[in-house]
Amino acid sequence: MNTTEQTSRYDNLDKMSTKELLTSINAEDMTVPVAVSKAIPQIEKLVDRIVERMICGGRVFYVGAGTSGRLGVVDASEIPPTYGVKDKFIGIIAGGDYAIRNAKEGAEDNFDQGAQDVLSYMLTKNDTVIGITASGGAPYVLGAINAAKEVGALTSGITCNENSPVAESSDIPVVAVVGPEFVTGSTRMKSGTAAKLILNMISTTVMIRLGHVVGNKMVDMQLTNRKLVDRGTRMIMEQTGITDYEYAKSLLLKFGQVREAVEHCNSGRI
């Protein structure tokens, strides 16, 4: 039996108080980062190879079903506004966009559809396909991994079970064994948390390695709301020594990007 399907360490949940339930869930959640930390060598190897490929024009595809697919879509969708990079991280979920908000039963069992969906993006050897499946056996994900390998793309599988099909079939498996879920088999909980942490680590580290962070600031972020305009303005003030907030803001809006505004200011071109 897969670890993710083993019986919860807790019983009689229906008889627990609210405080007992919350405290117990929190106690289980605290074990997840420990499990993820053990996978850092795998994540490191994956990130380094992704960076090599993205320098050559490669992309990263997250492929999953259900919760796993939604996590991939969420992470990919945050890259453009955060780092100003478009069409480099792409989330693919079994069942298409409809499945982001609604359960689409049986979609994860379609091996051929997984292959078709990922191949529709005209994969190249510089691309990376990362399958996300808590169980490690979702046919949709395995189909995508198989198709990616056939075109020479780098493949990885994020899973919470050892010796799973996705781990065995991918080039660089990332395995974080979080143990049984608080509610038996509810992999949206600890397994989902582990996947989210790993995706954060992958995309953030790749973007830093590719130069989209200077110091600790997101210098290429998109100015999509007032909060980000304010953040960008203060970043310009900090990096240039400008003390006039409105002037710094005008530079940000003129150049549309913290990096470009700072470069022009520091070069004396303003």
User: Into which percent range does the helicity of residues fall?
Assistant: 40-55%
**Averaging pLDDT over every residue, what do you get?**
95
User: How would a crystallographer describe the biggest sheet?
Assistant: 5 strands, parallel
Mind telling me the C-alpha Rg?
Answer: 21 Å
Strand order in the largest sheet: 2-1-3-4-5
Helix- and strand-based class?
Answer: alpha/beta
**Shape field:** globular
Order of helices and strands: HHHEHEHHEHEHEHHHH
Secondary structure: number of strands: 5
The separation of the N and C termini measures 65 Å
**Poorly predicted runs of 5 or more residues:** none
Beta fraction: 5-15%
Provide a descriptive summary of the structure in words.
With 270 residues, this protein is an alpha/beta fold. 51% of the residues lie in helices and 9% in strands. It has helices at residues 18-29, 32-37, 40-55, 66-83, 98-101, 111-119, 139-150, 165-169, 190-209, 226-240, 245-255, 258-266; strands spanning 60-64, 89-93, 128-132, 154-159, 172-175. It has a 5-stranded parallel β-sheet with strand order 2-1-3-4-5, sandwiched between helices. Helix 10 (226-240) crosses helix 11 and helix 10 runs parallel beside helix 12.
